[in-house]
Design goal:
This is PLPP7 phosphatase. Keywords: Membrane, Transmembrane, Transmembrane helix. The chain contains six helices and no strands. By secondary structure, the chain is mostly helical. The radius of gyration is 17 Å and the shape is globular. It starts with a helix and ends with a helix.
Length: 139
């Protein structure tokens, strides 16, 4: 039998994996509904089509960085300087998306909001260690 720490690790991993899949589906769906282009008229390349990154609203990078940052802030014991760096990392990711012309500031802000809401949703449906262990044993 695996140790308690490894079961807990599985729970964290699977919950974050579900959260990231949820983020990809929600952001892609919202982008297809809104069909908002970025601030510059850039023709999407092949890679953009493959990664479903053709529309700007909401910003997927911002939603993922907000969700992951909130997860790290809530579930890891971090010193104050690391907490500040984590928040700065999230802000830099959002700011960089605006600076390279892929998103409007409102796209990034909405991405941050959706990322936070997705974090809250995943926290509500958090999988217990036993459930994760069962899912891993089936896999």
């Amino acid at each position: 039998l695996p140790s308690t720490a490894s079961i807990s690790d599985h729970s964290l991993f699977l919950s974050r994996f579900v959260a990231l899949l949820l983020d990809i589906m929600i952001v892609a769906g919202l982008q297809k509904l809104a069909k908002r282009k970025g601030p510059y008229d850039i023709n999407p390349g092949l890679l953009d089509y493959l990664t479903m990154d053709t529309y700007a609203f909401p910003a997927g990078h911002a939603s993922r960085v907000a969700m992951l940052s909130k997860f790290f802030l809530n579930h890891l014991v971090l010193a104050i300087p690391l907490r500040i760096l984590l928040v700065l990392w999230a802000l830099c990711v959002g700011f960089s998306r605006v600076m390279i012309g892929r998103h409007h500031i409102t796209d990034v802000l909405s991405g941050f909001v959706f990322g936070y809401l997705q974090f809250r949703l995943v926290e509500l449906i958090w999988m217990s260690s036993n459930t994760c262990q069962m899912l891993i044993s089936i896999w």
